[in-house]
Amino acid sequence: MLDHVFLPVSDVARSLAFYTAALAPLGIAHVFDYPGAQGPEGHPDLYGFGRDSRMFFWLRPGPPPGLAMHIGFVARSEAEVRATHAAALAAGAADVDPAGAKLHYDPRYYAATFRDPDGTEVEVVYKSWQHPA
User: Fold this and answer.
1) What pLDDT tens digit does each residue of the chain (133 aa) get?
2) Are 56 and 49 in contact (CB under 8 A)?
3) Residues 82, 99: contact at Cβ < 8 Å?
């Protein structure tokens, strides 16, 4: 299991606004900033997002990875997938794959994919078998 991911972005303010809006339907919020000067020499400034008292997604200034990176966020329902996809598009995302069942993976795999302002591919996915009723 991953503890955290650092995503380099070209414009921190723009990406903070984008991810704040896009991830809100998942209950993920921008909750903490870490000034790099507090860390070892060369540590980047970090802008943390999380849910349930746990930060796991961090933006940092730097050259964006574009299509070299694909990030998947867990949704708790198909409705959350749809709401997150809609919020991301409203915040300026480019649509890649609208919300729906991804039968090529599994009939219970429900997801949507978009690109953030730097072109990084982001997927929001609900796998019903991973969420006990």
Assistant:
1) 789 999 999 999 999 999 999 999 999 999 999 999 999 999 999 999 999 999 999 999 999 998 899 999 999 999 999 999 999 999 999 999 999 999 999 999 999 999 999 999 999 999 999 887 6
2) yes
3) yes
100: number of Cβ within 10 Å: 14
Q: Domains of the chain: which residue ranges?
A: 5-130
Instruction: Compute the distance between CA of residue 73 and CA of residue 85 in angstroms, rounded to an integer.
Output: 11
33, 46 Cβ separation under 8 angstroms: yes
β partners of residue 34:
46
Q: Enter the tokens of residue 51.
A: 């849910």
Which residues 6+ apart lie within 8 Å of 89 measured at CB?
95, 114
Domain 5-130 has CATH 3.20.20.510: no
d(CA 8, CA 57): 11
- Amino acid identity of residue 95, one-letter, is D
